[in-house]
Every structure is written in C-alpha cells, then in structure tokens.
Design goal:
This protein is an alpha/beta fold. It contains 7 helices and 8 strands. It has helices at residues 8-16, 19-37, 47-60, 65-75, 82-95, 155-168, 197-216; strands at 5-7, 105-108, 114-118, 123-127, 131-135, 140-146, 174-179, 184-186. The protein has a 5-stranded mixed beta sheet. A 3-stranded mixed beta sheet has the order 1-4-3. The two termini are 14 Å apart.
Length: 220
Amino acid sequence: MSLEKIHLRKLLQIFYAPNNKRISLLRADIRQEIAKNEGLSGDGGDFHTAFWSGAKQHALGTEDLRALTEVYIVRSAQRKRLCPLLRDGFLLWWDEKRRWRNEPFEALLPSPHGRVSFEELASTVKVENLLSLEGDDHSSRLIYPYFAEEPRLSAEAARLGLWLMGEAFPRLEEMRILDVIRGTSFGTLDVPLQGNEEEVFQREYEAVLAEWRKLRNEYQ
C-alpha cells in the first residue's frame, strides 16, 4: 500500500481534505497502486517535484523561476493554470517574507532527507526534497513544501507537520513548512507545539489507512 510509505505533504493533504476530496485522493492512490502492480506506466512523473527543483535553483541563483515556469507550461499545457499559482506563491515568500530575517544566507544542495516510522501502523512517513538554507553563522534552516491547492495548510496541519519534521531531524531547531501556493510559511513560533502531536498524528494516520483498505475492497 502506498500509504504505508508516503510523503508528509501528501498525508497532511489527505488528513485535512473535506470528506469527498479525501475519498477522491484515496481512490486515485488505489488506482495508481493497481496500475503499478500491473506494470502500467504512470503519468510521466511528479510535476511538483520538477517545480520545486526549479524553485530551489532559483534560491541558489542559478535559474529564474519565472522563465522556468514558461518552460513547464510548454511541456504540459494542462499545468497552465497551476504553474503561475505555484510560481507566484513561492516568489511572494522568497522575495518578501524571507526579508523578515535581515541577514545573509545561501541555499544549499543537496538537501537532507529523513523518515519517521510508525511501528504500530507498519508505516513510514517521508520528509524529503527540502530547501536547505545556511546563515553566516553556519546555522541551518529547513523549508518543507506543501503544494496542494486544497485544502490550504491550516495551523493544526502545520503543527503536525512541524512535529514530524522535528522527529525526522532532531538535531535541527529551525524548520518551517511552506504552503507554496499561498506563499505562507509556519514555524513553531507561529504554531507552538502542544504536546499531543504524536497522538493526533497517529490517530489520523490510522483512520486514513483504515479508510483506504475499505475502499480498496471495492476494486477486487
């Protein structure tokens, strides 16, 4: 089951999607898993991964995300609406909100990656493909992207995401989760942890897994 090894961003989207949207996401995941098991080709890769690679190159100063967006649209006309939303949201954050910290820093490659296992659920959540920033004092800051158009990243979703990031990277203190389309990022100063994040995360994860299995029976 793909939900047993899943990216954090996708899991947060499923957790907080309205019921009809959540069922659609789970059904899409089931169909994708069936196609993979049958040896059928996918849809050509994850568009969001390609976009985020471009965003990180923009942060490194090696590419211009505005120009790259035009290339993405040429390659896939169906992304004509989504590409500008992602571009504008990222640039809003990068060009304006990052100036809240008035100090030099640079983007680094490669970025770290981590995983958090839930033994009772026999499942693993992946935290990968982050934007890694380093200040003059060699302090590290990790930015994790949330790409979904709906639902927007709520304060509770961000809090759960930050908790899991802390489990994946326990030695790093400064981490943020970025709602890319909205150009809004959250850190623990914005949404302080309450101490029940592990309990809530595991409860939601268990419920999603159960719902996935129930829906999967319809495809037998």
